[in-house]
Amino acid sequence: MKEIKLIGVNGSIRKDSYNRLLLQNIGFLLPDNVKMEIIEIKDVPIYNPDDENKLPTIVRDYKEKIRKSDAVIIATPEYNFSFPGILKNALDWFTRPPNDNVLQHKIAGIVSASSGMLGGSRAQYQLRQVLLYSEMDVLSKPEIFISFADKKFSPEGRIIDETSLGLINAFISNLVNKINKI
After folding, report:
1. Which site among 16, 73, 84, 167 is 20 to 30 Å from 41 CA-CA?
2. Could you state, in order of their start, the residue ranges of all structural domains in the chain?
3. CATH number for region 4-180
4. Does residue 71 contact residue 30 with C-beta atoms inside 8 Å?
5. What is the β-pairing status of strands 4-10 and 144-146?
6. How distant, in Å, are the alpha carbons of 6, 21, 43, 168 from that of 85?
7. Does the pLDDT of residue 120 top 90, yes or no?
């Protein structure tokens, strides 16, 4: 089996982020030939078109990691019915300048975890629009919305909800199958 490289983008900068835990748990469940590196976006500077031809080092490094990956998994919290501005900021950098959009034609999966009832679903739908505009090949199913996340992780950070684990395993399987079809 060929080795598959994934980049996990944590769309939250919260210290005890459920979305970081979700990405870590996905990493625990990956097949042996699939590796994922999680990138944190808290230090990505505010996007400025004046700087897109002299990229900040962190942006250049992240773009190179994405370029070398087979797919990207984006974990997003939901704030005020949408995904966070800091995630939009990182996506703006990843798609600029237009001739260096590292998201273009890249396979993407979207996941979210929230202490609320809808598990970040509204944020995912808006994020999906941005990713489709960026010409990503977005995995459509299964949708991973971990609702009431404060009750679905153990104190050690492992997902303890069997339904969530089943959906994550199906998500991983669909993602790997999509990558292998290329």
Report:
1. 167
2. 4-180
3. 3.40.50.360
4. no
5. unpaired
6. 23, 20, 13, 26
7. no
Whole-number pLDDT of residue 117: 84
Tokens of 12: 């939250």
Please tell me the distance from the alpha carbon of residue 69 to that of residue 48, in angstroms, as a whole number: 25
Six token digits for residue 29:
């469940």
Do residues 104 and 69 make contact, with C-beta atoms less than 8 angstroms apart? no
Residue at 79: amino acid letter: Y
Q: What is the pTM of this model?
A: 0.96
Question: In one letter, which amino acid is 57?
Answer: T
Token pair listed for 18: 């459920």
What's the length of the chain?
182
CA triple 128-131-134, angle to 5 deg: 150
User: If residue 37 lies in a helix (H) or strand (E), which one and from where to where?
Assistant: strand 34-40
Max Cα–Cα distance, the chain, nearest Å: 48
DSSP string covering 39-106, please?
EE-TTPPPP-GGGTTS--HHHHHHHHHHHH-SEEEEE---BTTB--HHHHHHHHHHT-SGGG-TTTT-
Instruction: Read off the pLDDT of residues 72-85 as tens digits, 9 standing for 90 and up.
Output: 999 999 899 999 99
Task: With CA atoms as reference, report the closest residue to 30 among 160, 175, 182, 162.
Answer: 175
Per the rule left: phi > 0, alpha: psi between -120 and 50, beta: everything else, 80 is left
